[in-house]
């Protein structure tokens, strides 16, 4: 299996400048390759430029510009061209499927924050000074950079990436590992229901509170964004304001990730089987369609967009997608089983086996479930988690034959 590691780097002033120049030159290569593709397609011949054609030009580009493009790893530049090729492949796939196309864009220097090295030892070297107590990573054109390795790297390092987040630099590794030993069997199964009032409810009646990291930081973020809007363009004050806004967003993101990791780890340690709702989060946060007013040309009727915007903000703040991805990854590493089930009517169905009545009236309020057929009463989220577990067990049994 493949596992990723992310470590903070501590470059010197000169190394940080060299890393910035590396990102700048890779960004220039990306934009130049994108411009070539655009110009070729706009030509009367409608020529299509492929990755192979652009990769073949790298040797000439490096020879023509030895002070910039010639300084960096050939393989990393190929990875940048592959990145552009993947962007075009995604664009054509979305066009074919009828989704919003999203044509690849030119990148500004501040919007190009990572460089990939496809193979350890080709333009980069992880743990380049094994004789030293301090871990370092070596990059071509930069040198040996100190790394704050806060945990050991298990397995063979396959790829290395450089990433910039604000003023900080990170190295991201992918390592190939043997299949880990599964955790001891607990004999416990659980279903979980994702929510906003509570982050999740389980089928055993437990709840995990929603930390609402984004809402707690909203006042500081609003003040920082207002300060940014008052700054003049291309000024030191504006650069500091941009950095402050980015730091606040980064802090919220790290808090959300920390909460997701801890919650997923608790579930994986306690249960052998976990069932969850198969949520289509992208569809859930779509804005409602406008309603034209037939009596007033050019006017529109209320469509609940303001209320929906608040709900969408709460859904994004909860971070369900990130949590479910982390849960699936941790369960795979621990030898646990995770199954996603259809979420429709899970909180409207009576969980009692002898009843099973389905009706919207079964949920009179957001938190309350009261079956109008048999009178069963419980917390609506617990009922949803119980039905999710039941559906997950049915799917598992059907899969096992």
| Number of contiguous helices | 11
Element order: H for helix, E for strand: EHHHHEEEEEEEEEHHHEHEEHHEEEH
Radius of gyration: 26 Å
- Low-pLDDT segments: none
Side-by-side strand order of the widest sheet: 2-6-7-1-5-4-3
Globular, elongated, flat, extended or rod-shaped: what is the shape? globular
Overall helicity: 40-55%
Arithmetic mean of pLDDT: 92
Helix/sheet category: alpha+beta
Straight-line N-to-C gap: 27 Å
Number of distinct beta strands: 16
β-strand amount = 15-25%
Biggest sheet record: 7 strands, antiparallel
Structure characterization notes:
With 401 residues, the chain is of the alpha+beta class. A hairpin with a 3-residue loop joins strand 4 and strand 5. The chain has a seven-stranded antiparallel sheet. The protein has a five-stranded mixed sheet with strand order 10-9-8-11-14. A two-stranded antiparallel sheet has the order 12-13. It is built from eleven helices and 16 strands. The protein is globular and about 80 Å long. Helix 1 crosses helix 4 and helix 6 packs antiparallel against helix 7. The two termini are 27 Å apart. The model has no long low-confidence stretch (mean pLDDT 92). The longest helix has 35 residues.
Strand and helix layout:
Layout: E1 2-10, H1 13-42, H2 51-55, H3 58-64, H4 74-97, E2 114-117, E3 124-126, E4 136-139, E5 143-148, E6 156-165, E7 168-176, E8 189-194, E9 198-202, E10 207-209, H5 213-216, H6 218-229, H7 236-270, E11 273-277, H8 281-284, E12 291-292, E13 300-301, H9 305-318, H10 320-334, E14 337-341, E15 368-370, E16 377-379, H11 380-400
Parallel strand pairs: 8-11, 11-14
Antiparallel strand pairs: 1-5, 1-7, 2-6, 3-4, 4-5, 6-7, 8-9, 9-10, 12-13, 15-16
Helix pairs in contact: 1-4, 6-7, 7-10
């Amino acid at each position: 299996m493949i596992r990723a590691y992310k470590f903070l780097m501590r470059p010197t002033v000169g190394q940080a400048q060299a890393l910035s120049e590396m990102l700048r030159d890779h960004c220039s290569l990306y934009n130049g390759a994108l411009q070539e593709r655009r110009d070729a397609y706009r030509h009367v011949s409608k020529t299509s430029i492929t990755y192979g054609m652009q990769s073949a030009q790298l040797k000439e580009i490096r020879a023509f510009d030895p002070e910039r493009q010639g300084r960096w790893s050939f393989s990393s530049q190929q990875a940048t061209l592959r990145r552009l090729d993947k962007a075009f492949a995604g664009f054509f796939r979305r066009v074919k499927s009828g989704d919003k196309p999203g044509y690849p864009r030119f990148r500004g220097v501040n919007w190009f924050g990572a460089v990939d090295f496809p193979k350890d030892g080709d333009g980069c070297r992880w743990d380049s000074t094994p004789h030293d107590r301090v871990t370092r990573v070596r990059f071509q054109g930069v040198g040996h950079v100190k790394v704050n390795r806060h945990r050991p790297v298990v397995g063979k390092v396959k790829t290395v990436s450089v990433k910039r987040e604000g003023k900080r630099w990170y190295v991201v590794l992918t390592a190939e590992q043997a299949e880990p030993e599964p955790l001891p069997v607990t004999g416990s199964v659980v279903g979980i229901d994702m929510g906003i009032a509570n982050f999740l409810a389980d089928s055993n009646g437990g709840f995990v509170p929603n930390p609402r990291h984004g809402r707690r930081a909203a006042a500081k973020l609003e003040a920082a964004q207002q300060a940014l809007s008052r700054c003049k363009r291309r000024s030191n004050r504006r650069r500091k304001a941009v950095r402050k806004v980015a730091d606040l967003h980064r802090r919220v993101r790290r808090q959300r990730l920390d909460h997701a990791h801890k919650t997923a780890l608790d579930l994986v340690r306690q249960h052998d089987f976990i069932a969850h709702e198969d949520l289509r989060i992208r569809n859930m946060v779509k804005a409602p369609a406008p309603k034209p007013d037939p009596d007033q040309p050019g006017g529109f009727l209320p469509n609940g967009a303001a209320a929906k915007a608040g709900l969408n903000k709460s859904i994004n703040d909860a971070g369900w997608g990130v949590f479910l991805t982390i849960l699936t990854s941790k369960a795979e590493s621990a030898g646990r089983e995770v199954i996603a089930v259809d979420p429709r009517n899970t909180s409207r169905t009576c969980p009692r086996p002898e009843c099973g009545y389905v009706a919207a009236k079964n949920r009179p309020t957001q938190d309350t479930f009261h079956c109008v057929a048999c009178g069963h009463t419980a917390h609506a989220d617990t009922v949803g988690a119980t039905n999710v577990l039941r559906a997950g067990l049915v799917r598992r049994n059907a899969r096992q034959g």
